[in-house]
Write a structure and sequence with these properties.
There is one protein chain. The protein is α/β, with parallel strands linked by helices. It has 2 domains: about 10-260, Metallo-beta-lactamase, Chain A, CATH 3.60.15; about 270-350, no CATH class. It has helices at about 10-20, 55-60, 105-115, 130, 135-140, 155-165, 230, 240-245, 265-285, 305-325, 330-350; strands at about 35-40, 50-55, 65-70, 75-80, 80-90, 95, 120, 150-155, 175, 180-185, 185-195, 205-210, 215, 255. The chain has a 7-stranded mixed β-sheet. A 5-stranded mixed β-sheet has the order 10-11-12-13-14, with no helix packed on it. Helix 9 (about 265-285) packs across helix 10 (about 305-325). Keywords: Signal. This is MBL fold metallo-hydrolase.
Length: about 350
C-alpha cells in the first residue's frame, strides 16, 4: 500500500484561514458577476431562484460554516471556500462529497436540521480535497448510528481509485458511466459524465431530478470569474463543451463545490468570459513574437522560449480583459494562469 502525504491543498488553506481570520478587518466584498440579489444565509428559509448568499467571503473567513436551505429538502454547505450538498429524505440523509478536513463541521451542519442517519455518501469525482473526509466521517458516524452509509460513485471514479490505489474508502455501489442513475428514497439522482472532460477524466454532473439541483464541483465557481487554472483543471480543451452540457440540463440551483450558489446566469457569464479570454489571447499571440524576452546569445537551452512567450501573451490578454472584468473576485490572481492554458490550447489545436 502506497503512502501519500496528508498535507494537501485544503489543509494548507485551512491553516491559512486560521492564521488570517482573527487579523481580518472589515473588507469590501467583490461585486456580483450576475447582479445577484444577496440574502442572509438561512437554514430554514428556502432560497428563491437567482438569490445568493450575502458576504460569502467574510463568512468563509470568520465563521465555522455557512448553511443555506436551497429547497424543502436540499441544503448547501460551505466552509473554508469549499462547498457541497446534502438531501434530507423521509428516513435518512444523502451527502455529496465529504470535504477534506471538514467531517465534524459537516456533521454539525446536518445535525442542525435533522437527526436522521446519513444513509448515503456520493463521490462526485476522485479528488481528495472534495472526498478526503470520508473515513473521518465514517468514524464519527459509528458513534451515532448502527449502519454504515452506502458510498456511491461512477464506474469512472471507481476505476480511477483502483488504478491509483486510493487510500480513501472505496464505493460500495457503482453506477454506469457516462450516464447512470440511482434512487435515494423517492428521489432520482441522474449522473451525467463528461466523456471528454476538462477538469479530470472522471468529472461528472449530478442532477437531483425532483429538486432541480445540479452538483458538479470544480466545473464553475458561481459569482466569480474562473479560478486559477480553471478550478485546477487538468486541461482547458473541453471546458466549453462541459459547461454547455451542464447548462443544458433541467435545473434551477447549481452547486459548484466553491463560490456561491449558482444559476444559469453564472454559466452565461463564464461562457462569455471564456470567449473574451480566447479572443484576448489570440490577439496577444499575433502581437508577441516567439522568442520575446529571451537573449539568444545568453542561453544554452531552448526551453526558456515557450514559457517566456506564453508569459507575455498572458500578461497582454489579462490587461485587455481588466477594464471589463478586473473588479471581480480573484481576477488578478487567476487570469494570468488561465490565459496561459488558453494560449497552450490555441497553439496546439488549429
Amino acid at each position: 500500500m502506497r503512502k501519500s502525504p496528508r498535507f494537501g491543498y485544503s489543509v494548507i488553506f485551512t491553516g491559512l484561514l486560521a492564521l488570517s481570520a482573527n487579523a481580518m478587518g472589515a473588507v469590501k466584498e467583490a461585486p456580483s458577476t450576475v447582479n445577484a440579489k444577496y440574502v442572509t444565509p438561512s437554514s430554514t428559509q428556502v432560497l428563491t431562484p437567482g438569490e445568493k448568499v450575502a458576504n460569502l467571503f467574510t463568512l468563509n473567513m470568520k465563521t465555522p460554516y455557512v448553511l443555506q436551505r436551497v429547497t424543502q429538502r436540499t441544503y448547501w454547505y460551505e466552509s473554508g471556500f469549499y462547498a457541497t450538498l446534502f438531501y434530507v429524505g423521509d428516513k435518512g440523509v444523502m451527502l455529496f462529497d465529504p470535504l477534506e478536513e471538514r467531517a465534524d463541521k459537516i456533521l454539525q451542519a446536518i445535525r442542525q436540521v435533522t437527526d436522521k442517519p446519513i444513509n448515503t455518501i456520493v463521490y462526485s469525482h476522485d479528488h481528495g480535497d472534495h472526498i478526503g473526509s470520508t473515513a473521518a466521517l465514517l468514524q464519527l458516524l459509528v458513534k451515532t448510528q448502527n449502519t454504515k452509509p452506502e458510498i456511491i460513485a461512477s464506474q469512472a471514479t471507481a476505476d480511477k481509485m483502483q488504478l491509483l490505489d486510493s487510500q480513501l474508502p472505496r464505493p460500495t455501489k457503482v453506477i454506469s458511466w457516462p450516464n447512470g442513475s440511482f434512487t435515494f428514497e423517492n428521489l432520482t439522482v441522474q449522473m451525467y459524465g463528461f466523456e471528454h472532460a476538462a477538469h479530470t477524466d472522471d468529472h461528472s454532473a449530478w442532477l437531483l431530478v425532483g429538486e432541480h439541483v445540479l452538483h458538479a464541483p470544480d466545473l464553475l465557481n458561481p459569482d466569480q470569474p474562473p479560478f486559477w487554472n480553471f478550478g485546477g483543471s487538468e486541461r482547458f480543451t473541453f471546458l466549453v463543451q462541459n459547461l454547455e452540457q451542464a447548462n443544458g440540463l433541467d435545473w434551477t440551483y447549481f452547486s459548484g463545490g466553491h463560490g456561491n450558489i449558482g444559476s444559469h446566469a453564472d454559466f452565461a457569464f463564464y461562457l462569455q468570459f471564456i470567449a473574451d479570454l480566447k479572443s484576448a489571447v489570440a490577439n496577444a499571440m499575433q502581437k508577441v513574437p516567439f522568442g520575446f524576452g529571451v537573449k539568444m546569445d545568453q542561453i544554452n537551452a531552448h526551453t526558456v522560449m515557450l514559457p517566456a512567450w506564453y508569459g507575455e501573451i498572458s500578461r497582454l490578454a489579462t490587461e485587455e480583459l481588466r477594464p471589463k472584468y478586473g473588479q471581480y473576485y480573484g481576477f488578478e490572481t487567476a487570469t494570468l494562469a488561465n490565459a496561459e492554458m488558453v494560449a497552450e490550447y490555441l497553439y496546439s489545436y488549429r
